[in-house]
Amino acid sequence: MKDLSDYSLKGHNTFGMDVKCRRFIEFETVDELLQVVSALTPADMPLFVLGGGSNVLFTKDFDGTVLHSAIKGRQATKADGNVYLRCGSGETWDDIVKLCVKNGLYGAENLSLIPGEVGATAVQNIGAYGVEAKDLISKVEAVDLENGKVCEFSNAECGYSYRWSRFKGEWRGRYVITYVTYRLAESFVPHLEYGNILSELERRGIKTPSVSQVRDVIIGIRKEKLPDPAVEGNAGSFFTNPIVSKAKYESLVKEFGTVPHYVVDEDNVKIPAGWMIDRCGWKGKSLGNAGVHSRQALVLVNRGGADGGEVLRLCEAVRKDVKDKFGITITPEVNII
Questions:
Q1: Above 90 in pLDDT, residue 322?
Q2: Percent of the chain residues past pLDDT 70, beyond the cut
Q3: Hey, which residues are catalytic here?
């Protein structure tokens, strides 16, 4: 277990913000976490649970204690015609996807190359190309910081919705996730309808793709449109795609012509935030040392030397322009600290 004071978090956030926390604790087992929780005092507050730092923007030093899981481990069991894969919260998410693809466990392949750790999948309900973590999660194990008890939650109890869970809502800051169990299939049913997966498969001359080919295509698409954090600091998609009423969507079509969208249900549609940001003229533009990525307007980047305040000012400028032009409020997906 690590227990460090005045610790730099620059290597723990993909925006590359050079901020510090007063105390940094990294635990490798549930027992170590329980020891930590039992010894916490008011002087250690506030607490912040940090995963891989791929979905956080630090705007200043954190005057409190950061908890980070280094719990590893993968254990598979079969039941009900599925495979249940229990993973430590400190495992790298894409390593788990790679493992699934290699071993013929299906369902996670559309979530390839999403940065971060296993624990964050259960908090953020990560998603891409028509698949969300909630479609796979069977059980979440955690430690309650209020009373030090070990808890288990079913998928339903986590209250999942688009990029949301109770861990982001009323449970925010209360639980430290230790293990997540995913339900995976042993038969492959590809989901190819979202984004340009089909067109890329066609370009490669693939009519009936294997799971490995789907993963390769998705990785290629993501690498093409998303910046490498080692080159330009970023947290991937900075904003969630807003869900609007069908009536609002129809009014946008009347004003702007063709509007890209995804049908949520008979009353609501999802509008790509990146499209609106692009239409506002922000793609490739900068505000100070922070900018909007030149190939994907949904991504805000650290062009070099930006602090969290600069990225936050860019965020607010983009949100204002989208609101003024489209009458839609876009919401940051990243945690702003």
A1: yes
A2: 100
A3: 163, 237, 333
